[in-house]
């Protein structure tokens, strides 16, 4: 399974230790104890967002304003580096979403942005997607880890013959990975443990 370094060579933006161990542990504890509600997906051909667990089965953790603001502040410091890497000028980032994937949870292959006029504004304005990991993968059940739940990318190699070849990322605590929101990607089903991540989008 590819490491973050392999995906960096294919054009993704990678920061190991984006959160130090203390901050990672604190955010993980908050996400674990927060109340949760089902995450939504955009409706094709419209601007509505709905719960559809045949496409996306995960929960939003409703963390404190302080935790969300801390993440947003750290992300905004990263803006110049993302602009140099991806090219477009960025304004700010959307409110971070804290996500919890339990066994059986997944997100089918999708893109994070749509450009059609009927799409929601928050989808159309996305220029860079970022995912931050609060815990890591383990093939065997271990405390504070998960199995399955791989963030898997498609079409990175630039060869149409390999477009259906998924490149799954090995999740690590504190890891941040950034990519263009039109890159096709999925989260495979979690097999054990709980997967904790934070996602946001720069516009």
Give structural notes.
The protein is α+β, with helices and mostly antiparallel strands. The chain has one domain (4-37, 57-202): Jelly Rolls (Sandwich), CATH 2.60.120.620. The protein contains five helices and 17 strands. It has a seven-stranded antiparallel β-sheet with strand order 1-14-9-17-7-6-2. Strands 5-8-15-12-13 form a five-stranded antiparallel β-sheet, with no helix packed on it. The protein has a three-stranded mixed β-sheet with strand order 10-11-16, with no helix packed on it. The protein is globular and about 40 Å long.
In percent, how much strand structure appears in the residues? 25-35%
The general outline is globular
Task: Give the CA-CA distance, first to last residue.
Answer: 31 Å
Structural class: alpha+beta
Would you identify the CATH H-level superfamily? q2cbj1_9rhob like domain
Number of strands: 17
CATH topology: Jelly Rolls
Compressed to H and E, one letter per element, the order equals: HEHEEEEEHHEEHEEEEEEEEE
- In what order do the strands lie side by side in the largest sheet? 1-14-9-17-7-6-2
> Helix coverage percent of residues?
10-25%
CATH architecture verdict: Sandwich
Total count of domains: 1
Radius of gyration based on Cα positions:
16 Å
Give me the number of helical elements: 5
Overall pLDDT: 94
Low-pLDDT residue intervals, each spanning 5 or more residues? none
The largest β sheet comes out as: 7 strands, antiparallel
User: So what's the oligomer here?
Assistant: single chain
Which CATH class applies here?
Answer: Mainly Beta
